Amino acid sequence: MRIVFANSAWVSAAERLILRGGGWQSVRLRVRYGLIFHPAAGPVLIDTGYTPEALSGERRGRMLQLYGALLKPELNAAGQVLPMLRRFSLSPDDIRAIIVTHFHADHISGLSLFRNARFIASDAAWARVKARSPSQNLRHGVFTELFPPDFEARLDGISAKPRVAAQGDIPGGADLFGDGSVIAIDLPGHADGQFGLLFTGPGRPLLYAVDVQWLLAALTESRTPGFPATLIAEDATAIESASAMLRRFLASGGEVMLCHDPAPTSHDLAPEAA
Ligand SMILES: [Zn+2]
Fold this sequence. Notes:
Layout: E1 3-14, H1 15-18, E2 26-38, E3 42-46, H2 52-55, H3 62-71, E4 74-75, H4 81-87, E5 97-99, H5 105-108, E6 118-121, H6 123-131, H7 134-139, E7 155-157, E8 163-164, E9 173-175, E10 183-186, E11 195-199, E12 206-208, H8 216-220, H9 229-232, H10 236-251, E13 255-257
Parallel strand pairs: 3-5, 5-6, 6-7, 12-13
Antiparallel strand pairs: 1-2, 1-4, 2-3, 8-9, 9-10, 10-11, 11-12
The structure holds zinc ion.
């Protein structure tokens, strides 16, 4: 099963905000999303990255406009989801499934572009989004205007998926396609309902750990940033246990990838196009 990642945008942050003991210099972070070619489900997106819907869309509320103005993400034209799909001769209507790892803007921004897709996501987290007021959702970093109006009708909740047990330091989770090829691993802490994806095909197991940390060094060197990063975390203590689990997975020979780490990986599409 082929797995590729692309970079939708660049976002700059002072290193000390995202790495304990880091410097004042600015780090240029990627905003990745992925595409897998599943033998039965076809091409499946992993999130959508940032798209213009989050940064200039007419449906944006005032808080989302403010968020864009503060963060100033710089969209990467060639790495945007539609041109990336064209590289594989795919149109948005060819996408029948999108795995939504969590509900932050840089992951759900482009969902409304895909009218034929069902959304594989945390139904428990969605139920909490629905139960909250708009301002409570904003405090959880969720801009509800980015969800397609029929999100719930197209939601394919992970709670109904069969479970796969952990094996030693390889964590267990929800078997998204019922064939063991893609396992959703709970990664609490950063955002309500966040999960990562474990791929155990031939070769080294890969865990896409999304936003557990911004930088791989924060994980490998145990340098989880403190305040103010803890302020925006859903549950700062859970970040530590998720990070410890990932370190055990790394130590057992697994590979961990993050959404925002700036260093290119072997799964990233060639830089000239992504
Ligand atoms: Zn996030």
